[in-house]
What does this fold into?
Amino acid sequence: MNRLLLTALLLITSSFVGAHNVVGGVYTIGDTIEGEAGFSNGDMAPAGIKVIVTDMQGASLGQTETDAEGVFRFKPSRYVTHHFTLDLGAGHTLALTLAAEELPAALAPTQAPAATAVTTAAAKSATALNSQIEAAVARQVKPLRRELRELKEAAGLRDIVGGIGYILGLCGIAALLRERKMRKETA
Amino acid sequence: MHIVDGALSNEILAIGAVVGALGVAKGLRDMDYEQMPVTALLASVFFVASYIHLPVGVSSIHLILNGLIGLALGWAAFPALLVALLLQAVFFGFGGFLVLGVNLINIAIPAVLVGLLLRHALAITTQKRQLAMLGALAGGGAVTLTAFMVAGTLALNGDAFLPAAKLAFLSSLPLVVIEAAVTAAAVALIGQVKPELFAVAARTSS
It folds into this structure.
């Protein structure tokens, strides 16, 4: 009876399988940085979480907030590596980094001399097209990124069996050591 | 119940590591050879049980079973939980390496306390109802203690204690109920089928 109860409880609870780590990502879309934060069970961060943006040295670059879907946007103005820090409370913090190379190309410092010479209409429409393509690709890739992240977080049967194996192995090592000690004592 | 890396200040991490190491040392010294298979078994149980998560609010809870572990292992709960927590950090990404000590003492100290307080009562009864009640008390009590210790840790770290404790307590209320039920069922079963499991632990640390 008790065994049945235990099994039933385990069955009920196991349908809620999920992990509780904080996960997120940041990427460039057009001229803004978009990021998202959530929990590895698929829930997104609540709205209004403060996102603090700093550079490599920890100097503040500004701050932003998450919206209802756990997404935040930040318009970069300097060509430096951006660090994003979120505190979701109860010991859940998340730190994200976006390298300077991934920032919008328009911010890169090396462009200046050539660009001023040829600002033809053709070049302008080319950049417009570019940013459109960027936005479209970003939209398509977004769910893939999320799926990839969830996959990376997910622990499977292999991990469970592996962990139990380690514990049994440790137990075996302890038995071996004791065996050796006893043999020495009798010898 | 696992606190993740990067959330706590260095002082708290250091205290956790030192206290955790002391507990593990005491546990290893107390543990005798007969107890080892049970220790490994319960470490495995904890390792797997923590994988089963129940989402509650922004946090999430999972079975800890530290009441059962404390009853069966006493001080040996420390090394058992250390191994299990380490493996959880490696395989599941729960918690982390730096906060290992803090997570260890938050879970193991309630286990040891419950074990020391209740195991003698456990050793003298074989009645199913009494066993179940003791189990429920151990399971629920250990988890409640752990919840308050987690809240206390977060409070030391700068979160306001009352809201943090309230959140920890409220979100672990369903867990306390589930944990009490599971531990009660397990203790009643073990107490009838294999009472020597608790007896070994009681002998080694009395």
